[in-house]
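In this section we walk through a basic example: taking a raw amino acid sequence and producing a predicted 3D structure, encoded as discrete structure tokens. The instruction is simple. Fold the sequence below.
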Amino acid sequence: MNRQRLAQWWFVGTLVFALLAMLVPLPAALQPFKPYWPALVLLYWALESGDRVTLGLAFVTGLAADLLVGVLLGEQALRLTALVFIALRFRSRLRFFPMWQQTLAVLALLLNDRILLTIVRVFAGDALPPPSWWISPFVGAALWPFLFLLLDDLRMRLRIQ
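The resulting token sequence is shown next.
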């Protein structure tokens, strides 16, 4: 298998893994701690390989996530598209931040994602979420350095550009 095909499989595989990780059921007590995996993986690829991640890919990934989870069609597509747009817009700055600043930027992006989700759900007629619902962005930001280093290490071992 040539290097380019391996890179494509690795890219698609990480996105599929993120979508499947989103489906893992957790007990009700741990549900607020579940990170938004597709956002974290798309953020990694947007920072490391900006030419592969486009707004169209974020939208299609969000539609796939909507269909897998069974929420309002377009909800996660809108969220991921907004997240990737901001990440790509500030990619040149975010890439060279130290890890702690990058983690804070990821936290800001994930909190922005939650605010956008709250607006969409309120317009759809749902009630405001409980305060525990806001824990997930902090868990995602805490996992960011480990996820980034893991994906980066595996990408380097496979020598994928």
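Looking at the output, two observations stand out. The CA atoms of residues 18 and 37 lie 5 Å apart. The chain has seven helices and no strands. In the next section we compare this with other chains.
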